[in-house]
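Q: What would this chain look like folded?
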Amino acid sequence: MKRTYRIHPADYAIGDSERLYERMAAKGWVLEKRGITLSRFRREAPQRLRYRIELAQPEFLEGADLPEEQRELYEDCGWHLAAHCGVTYVFCAQEDGDAPPELYTDPRGQVQMLRSLRRTYRWSWLWAFALLAFLFFTVWVTNDGDFPRAVQDFAAQWQLAYVVGTSIVLLYLALLAEIFYNGIYGWARTAALTRRLQRGLPVDRSDHRAGRIAHGAVRGALGLAIAVLAVLSVAQYAGTKTYEMPAEADGPYLTIADLGHEGTRTEMLEGVDPATVEVTRSLAATVYNTHECVETADGDTIWIYQDVYCMDSPEQARALLPALMETATFGRPESFTPVWVDGLDEAYWDGMDSVAQKGSLAYSITVNYYSTAEDEAYDVLRALGAADFSAWQ
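A: My prediction, written as structure tokens:
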């Protein structure tokens, strides 16, 4: 192996980076390139090298550059530029060579540069806030600017998203956590270094081993969580099954025949299959999403959509009901009527939308026919209550 890579400390951890490169050189790995996160080393004989890092003044939207005269000053003293990335310039020399020159006689001259660097970390976690704000804004718009209702809708959508795609939601939150942590930690470190320079003290080039270990442990834990959740998310996506709905239900869902309507399955929209079942297994539940469309002998077209959540307990199923009413296709929580139906623990009805709990199963059902007649209004819920879904409870 002629090359290897290491995750290097951030730009503000000047001493930690210098010590890393010196330790690697002593092991026979000489710095070849520094990237945003990784440093690349090439295989050579073990050497006792010294490294010196200088931070260039970043220019807004124009990158950063170290003035040529400063580079020449280093080279005249036997130091050569080993690598650079962004604001970080890494110089190297043999251990028995001359001491590196001081580019800044007054540490206060570097304050403005560090303030610019600190802004980059501040913006990193502000972008994470902006993403969450954008997601909420889309919900707020769909609720016609009703802020309290948008908050309820936003919370309900996140609750259902967690149940349907637990690992995916946790992966998203873990990524946000990493962005927040790295941004806030970097901002705090650059702020501390700025205060040091303002007091007239030189850049801290010491090796903060304890802090580096603690910081690495947090980043490692977040990285491991992200990797594991990414694998679980891919596995869930790969394990999702979609197939044609059989004549008799093979899961805890209803067919239109169960509602007492016979006919021929047909397309509701061009290119949409007449009847399909999608089964998703997440860390929190097994979820069935179904749709079926039938044309009856009378020429009527009946369709039904169902979301069935197979939870671990009746308590978990019951906890989903408010979110299901909040996100119902046509109904709103305040428009649902409580209904008492044999075989159901709880049931709510609003014309074409029905929400119910049957043991550890939670249901959101939408059909395209509406009746106010007492003997027909709750036929979906009655069919659900009469069905035997004990195998899935």
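DSSP finds eight helices and 17 strands in the chain.
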